[in-house]
Amino acid sequence: MISTSEIALTNAAGKEGRSTLLSIRKVAKTFGKNLVLRDISLNVAEGEFLTILGESGSGKTTLLRIIAGFETASAGEVWMGEERLDRQPPYRRRVNTVFQHYALFPHLTVEQNVAYGLRVAKRPESEIQSRVQDALDKVKMSAYAKVKPSKISGGQQQRIALARALVNRPRLLLLDEPLSALDANLRRQMQVELKSLQREVGISFIFVTHDQEEAMVMSDRIALLRSGELEQVATPREIYGRPASAYAAQFIGHTNLLKGEVCQEVARCAGLSWSAQVPDGPVQFSLRPENIRLVTGKTESPGGVRVRGRVKQQAFHGATELLRVECADGLTLTVRTPGGGATLDIVELEFSAADAVPVRESAERI
Amino acid sequence: MFSRAYKAAVTLPPLIWVTVFLLVPYLLMFCYSFWSVSAFQTIEHSWNFSNYRQLLRVDVYWQTLLRSMGIAARVTAFSLLLGYPLAYFLSFYAGKKKDLLYQLVIIPLWVSYLVRAYAWKTILGSDGVLNTLLQYVHLTKHPLEFLLYSPFAVVLTLTHIYTPFAFLPIYAALEHIPRNLVEASHDLGATPGQTFWKIIFPLSIPGVVAAATFAFVLSLGDFIAPLLLGGPSGIMISNIVVSLFGAAYNWPLGAAISFCMLVLVVCLLFLSERLEKKWSFS
Lengths: 366, 282
Hints:
The structure holds 2 protein chains of 2 kinds.
Chain A: E1 20-31, E2 34-45, E3 49-53, H1 60-68, E4 75-80, E5 83-84, E6 95-98, H2 110-120, H3 125-138, H4 154-166, E7 172-176, H5 184-201, E8 204-209, H6 212-218, E9 221-226, E10 229-234, H7 236-241, H8 246-251, E11 256-263, E12 266-269, E13 272-275, E14 281-287, E15 292-294, E16 304-317, E17 320-327, E18 332-337, E19 346-352, E20 357-359
Parallel strand pairs in A: 3-8, 3-9, 6-7, 7-8
Antiparallel strand pairs in A: 1-2, 1-4, 4-5, 9-10, 11-12, 11-14, 12-13, 14-20, 15-19, 16-17, 16-19, 17-18
Helix pairs in contact in A: 2-3, 2-4, 3-4
Chain B: H1 4-32, E1 36-37, E2 43-44, H2 50-57, H3 59-93, H4 98-106, H5 113-124, H6 129-136, H7 151-175, H8 179-187, H9 192-220, H10 224-230, H11 237-245, H12 251-278
Antiparallel strand pairs in B: 1-2
């Protein structure tokens, strides 16, 4: 439900200028006979907000736990700068985690929870006091300092978990689906807060989620994980506009997948044809619903592809409407229109050949 | 939700049971503790405090009570010292062997208590297994006398018997601790030692309190271990109660001691419940 224009908050600045903070090199993980992660290589830049996106069972949490040190990789290495991280126990890594269910210590007050990392590091008490106060201010929870975690709401616990991690000034913060337990409104609010907090503190975030919308809104880059392998690593705009595979195209946003054939730079699919700079052979194209327009009149715009069809379903989505249009040769297209409110029947559709993005066929994996 | 008849059918049997087998006997015991024994060995139903006065005046009674509490305290301490590490190891480090080891801890509970007490008699006696071994390897010339018929023997036996009782609530409390709290602690830079003392141990306190209560209350009222292994110096308060109800035929005095112990135990249970509540956060 995200269109390119809605991708707000994304840092458009190029990431090439930043130095690499974390380097994951050929990491693999097996549980018994199960291969959970295969040959994962990924770099995280200083100050970057990287999201690991994937369905449940894709291995995203396992990857995060390997970085945190709760799991050991079966193969490969994790480096932070010049330091090999994967041989260190979790308590020696300058990495902190915000857990999915917050994992606040129930016998300690909010304040004691936040101070925990500094206390075990034996920082002077005066420093602890001021840093804890700052951290609580930052997440707007100072009023709850003396309260036990069980007395505050899920969203508030979330903030405390964040403060407890950030107070230690880690070089890298790991967040394991931290918003999944919150209701939709609070969740959107926390997405914005989390993103601006990340900008403010300048720490690299690795954020794990199964929610593609969340990933788009918040990330500098998205690493799409599928059945233990990286499908695509790119900025939200790139991954949405130029999905590498049919899976990436379908998982992130809505799309129409057109199966066709390319012969001498001409793509043919369900009676349609357009020019495409792709090697000959069978090809799949991803065509976003918002890139298909309703048109009237006879003249095709240059580079445009015309198709006529019957509207089978018309769903109201507020600012836009989604149409399911049945065309000739068994082709069904999903079209997003601004939505005039009129009931449509036979429609004339047009899309630019450039918007039909050739994607790699995603091999079926278990 | 449920009909009155159903509620009555469910609650009445236990209620009757508790009344007939607990409340009425306790009430009888309470009454007896104010009566006395006549010169003709009959119970006289004259109400007075002479039994309680006697308890305070005659040294042997309160001294034995104190010794019993001392023995119970030592049994409690040793049971916790053995039970806690065992429970901790099983809960956190036993991995796949967890269930098997758990069964091994429980199995001794199936063996009759008497058999286990007798077994210690065989082990600790002058011609027992331990003394024979010690002399065989020339560590001692003569059998060690303090091993049997001593408070030592009683503490040893009771510790052996009640350690599983101490283990169980501690193990349950440790199993109850969400593992992500331990991970969070490590994540925040706490070493395994710091994590144990700051997170695991405080969260297991309700289990420790329950364990201590079991071990103390059960061993305080024990009379078989001191009877078989205690000798004169290892006598406990229950042995006195038994003899007062038996050979000495002084039921009123026995009832008075029993009532004092009942009050003591009820106070302990009350205290332990308060402590458990204070330290539970689920």
